[in-house]
Write a structure and sequence with these properties.
42% of the residues lie in helices and 22% in strands. It is of the alpha/beta class and 302 residues long. It has a single domain (36-292), classed as Acetylglutamate kinase-like (Carbamate kinase). The strands form 5 sheets. An 8-stranded mixed sheet has the order 5-8-2-1-11-15-16-14, sandwiched between helices. A two-stranded antiparallel sheet has the order 3-4. It has a two-stranded antiparallel sheet with strand order 6-7. Helix 4 (78-87) crosses helix 5 (103-127). The chain is globular, with a radius of gyration of 19 Å. It starts with 5 loop residues before the first helix and ends in a 9-residue tail after the last strand. One of its GO terms (molecular function) is ATP binding.
């Protein structure tokens, strides 16, 4: 996306005070409903790149934590990894959208994700009054992994075997926001590059989270000219069969419903290019993205 200035994101006119009051009142039942619940947020896309969007996201996350919601962030950082690799003279190769990760590349992944990317997010949340702490899957044995099925081609790309939730729970109980870099390990001391979406899903299931929220560059599931507010498993299967849901959205949708089957109550896809989309999705009746539910007769409120 083109770089946005902060002035580009400000409304031309201020909302009437009565409208602001109505929004706050609308948010109240959701604040009460979600107090002490856990939200896992997968943070990626343009929301990680544009300064104003990064600040907006950090404000949103801080507010969620301040009203009593346990927030766990899982972040990507593919572009940053590629740029760091280039500076070191290491070529990035992808197979079916997955990064081929040899020993040189896993060092770049570890250095970039656990280093600058992770700490930049922690610092930004701190600047907005939140208390965040950087975590990798190596800390306190948080993410144990095994080689992926395509290891012969992809190298040190892992699939998650277990999540040790004890450390994450401890941080949440202390009022902190864990910011997790998706790096795993095995019993032989190998370090693995983990897909951030998969890591977020596994962590949400292990934590028995109320919500898993994907902050991405799409507004949700689009059918024709409209964004679906809610979609159930049967509808998703029909849309995939009809070719309405296609391409890279298919694995994200299938993963979302597997996560629901694992016990997470709601999955949301929201557009990180929209300012305050996180708060609008959670604290308003209409929302701004698409939520996944198990069955159509489930409660469709956010």
């Amino acid at each position: 996306m083109d770089s946005l200035s902060c002035s580009d994101l400000r409304p031309v006119r201020k909302a009437p005070k009565t409208a602001i009051g109505q929004v706050l009142i609308e948010a109240l039942p959701y604040i009460r409903k979600f107090e002490r619940k856990t939200f896992v947020i997968k943070y990626g896309g343009s929301a990680m790149k544009d300064l104003c969007l990064k600040n907006s996201f950090a404000q949103n996350v801080t507010l969620l934590r301040k009203v009593g919601i346990n927030v766990v962030l899982v972040h990507g950082g593919g572009d940053a990894i590629t740029k760091t690799a280039e500076k070191l003279g290491i070529t990035s190769t992808f197979v079916h959208g997955k990064r081929v990760t040899d020993k040189d590349m896993i060092s770049v992944v570890q250095m970039t994700l656990a280093g600058k990317v992770n700490q930049d997010i922690v610092q930004l949340i701190s600047e907005h009054g939140g208390k965040a702490v950087g975590v990798t899957g190596l800390d306190a044995d948080t993410i144990q992994a095994v080689p992926c099925r395509d290891a012969a081609t992809l190298g040190l790309v892992g699939e998650i075997e277990t999540i040790n939730t004890a450390y994450i729970d401890l941080l949440c109980k202390a009022g902190l926001i864990p910011v997790i870099a998706p790096i795993g390990f095995d019993d032989d001391g190998n370090i693995y590059n983990i897909n951030a979406d998969d890591a977020a899903s596994s962590i949400a299931i292990a934590l028995k989270a109320e919500k898993l929220i994907y902050v991405s560059d799409v507004a949700g599931i689009q059918v024709g000219e409209r964004i679906l507010k809610t979609i159930c498993k049967a509808e998703a299967a029909d849309f995939i069969e009809q070719g309405i849901i296609t391409g890279g959205m298919i694995p994200k949708v299938l993963s979302g419903f597997l996560t629901l089957d694992g016990g997470v109550r709601k999955i949301h896809i929201i557009d990180g290019k929209s300012v305050h989309s996180l708060l609008l999705e959670i604290f308003t009746h209409e929302g701004v993205g698409t939520q996944f539910i198990s069955e159509q007769d489930d409660d469709s409120n956010h």
